[in-house]
Amino acid sequence: MQTAGVLVVTIDNAPVNALSADVRGGLMAALAAAEGDAEIRAVVVTGAGKTFIGGADIKEFGKPPVEPMLPAVIDRLEGFSKPVVAALNGAALGGGLEVALGCHHRIAASGAKLGLPEVKLGIVPGAGGTQRLPRLTGIPAAIDIIASGRMVPAAEALSLGIVDAVATENLLDAAVAAAADLAGKSLRRTAELAVPTSTAEENEAAAAKARARAKGQTSPLEAVRLVLATQNAAFADGIADERATFLRLRDSQEAAALRHVFFAERAAAKVEGLEGVEPRPVSTIGVVGTGLMGSGIAVAALDAGYTVIGIEQTSEAAEKGKERITALLDRNLKSGRIDAKGKAERLSRLIVSGNIGNLAKADLVIEAVFDDLDVKTLLFQRLDGIVRPDAILATNTSYLDPDVIAAATQHPERVLGLHFFSPANVMKLLEVVRGAKTLPDVLATGLAVARKLNKLPIVTGVCEGFIGNRIFSAYRREAEFLLEDGALPQDIDAAMEAYGMAMGPFAVFDLAGLEIAWARRKRQAATRDPAARYVDIPDRLCEAGRFGQKSGRGWYRYVDGKRTIDPAVTELIEASRAAKGLTPRAIDADEIVSRLLKAMADEGQALLAEGIAARASDIDLVMINGYGFPAYRGGPMFAAAAKAGAA
Ligand code: T1G
């Protein structure tokens, strides 16, 4: 399209205008045409639909490269004799932002988001991002943006100098006017700019923060190195280093794992039997029980814009519940996540009371009361008579059978499980449990609400522990076998933390508390297969009054909240082994990791065979987002398969 001597080039490659070979070729052809046409005095590049450019085409990774390569396209844009203006109509990510950085002027729509999310794919920007961005923002801001991969909103991009203007009215009109205005003037080429000065301390502070956040991942460290190099290196040298680093990382295991996670997240959204099923409208959510879980769920719902009706047994308990919810909002106020107005506005959408009859107004009721079958079934029977006929009932149980809870109602088809993870207003994972009778539109509503709550919903069938806790139980069992075989808790935790787990298993057990698992083991004692291997060390620990971090002693001793190795635990483990006549042997970190991974993956295979999980990648997402498994290892199913492949 051409207006007043300005050629508007629109990238139209649904769904996200990724820079496929065709798009790269198309851009080159458009520039060639513009160059040869004396009528054209300037060029605007924009995107069709709601995205500017979603980046390189991730589906092309691993395939033979096709000319023209992206860096060459961007060099051509930047070196172009006529002005090229980027009109950022929506997300400009990865290679998409790099295209914009190669243009001579950038205007963003107010809702546009910019970012270089490459580190989230285990790579670094490969088309100049690490070298051009710091020339606009300075080194500290560029480190922050590139090493975190975060999205930068248009207003912030303007204040950082990444864009030159934010369009208040029609973006394209503004871009065309700017392009026409630049025609014939000297052009500002990002590569030619000097890097704005910052002190060594400022650079080092940004780098240290980014390195600490990397937690064992390689690509953010490489991104930091490349940005820091812009202080001294010539642009061309920096670009060569960036390209070599990009190509090396692209073929790494970390990148393969993170690509797997990217596609896993998209695959998880596709749920069998829900094609074309419309969710029911939800604007008011009831939350029964406003304890630790319930108050977190209430805050998540308030954050997402829902009206929330909290229910407690008495008005005194309701008062306490409201205080807990307010305290969580206050924490977000203090950290700057919300402002005072936001807090007040959220509270205006909240009622907490002892009157269960209030739930007649709810579209969805989430139960978060004590995890006891009698308590929950009685509650559901009551709710069934209170809520509207089209309202949905959800149970937030960890271990109970939602089908049994549903069966207590007249309408089990409107019941599903929503298994939140603590703290419920923070954790990304939400297991959405499809019961035997759950209707498709009820499940679809659960998923839609979950997404609005900013969660990653994973659908699971019904079994004890659903996907996550089933795998975690297998992990726990194998960790206990390792204890008997010769490893100590600190060896196992160190191996798993070096592998990348947020916390080793024994530190997690201590944090969660040991008594619930103890009570469960006691309940199960009568039905346990006597031939199955059973490790009694955790029982001995509980008998000795060691219940974890809360009691100051568990698998470790806690001094001022810091975990320290306790010789008493070592003695207890040795005594248990001796009582069983076991001879411990040395177990190295590699064996620890391999065995724990295999235990998780084997349990995952069982979940797939039973139809509880729809696909292996769903299991990976559960463990990454709910249990601290490192995303850059791809999840236990991916990692175990990769390890088996490498062996
Ligand atoms: N390549 C290929 N397919 C992509 C894609 C991409 N970059 N981005 C999204 N898709 C597919 C996705 O799989 C899904 O497909 C559909 O598009 C809709 O996605 C040289 C190295 C842009 C914010 O990391 O963050 O540039 O499942 O459901 O919620 O330095 O997609 O429908 O078949 O996510 O509207 C850097 C990744 C690449 C951006 C849109 N770019 N994408 O969100 O839709 S590396 C990224 C996103 C790079 C250079 C390098 C989001 C989005 P399907 P969606 P959305």
UniProtKB/TrEMBL annotation:
Any Pfam family the entry gives: ECH_1
GO MF annotations in UniProt: (3S)-3-hydroxyacyl-CoA dehydrogenase (NAD+) activity; enoyl-CoA hydratase activity; isomerase activity; NAD+ binding
Domain 3-hydroxyacyl-CoA dehydrogenase NAD binding: from-to ranges: 284-460
UniProt KW keywords: Fatty acid metabolism, Isomerase, Lipid degradation, Lipid metabolism, Lyase, Multifunctional enzyme, NAD, Oxidoreductase, Peroxisome
Pathway: Lipid metabolism; fatty acid beta-oxidation
Domain 3-hydroxyacyl-CoA dehydrogenase C-terminal: start-end pairs: 465-558
Subcellular location: Peroxisome
Name of the protein: 3-hydroxyacyl-CoA dehydrogenase
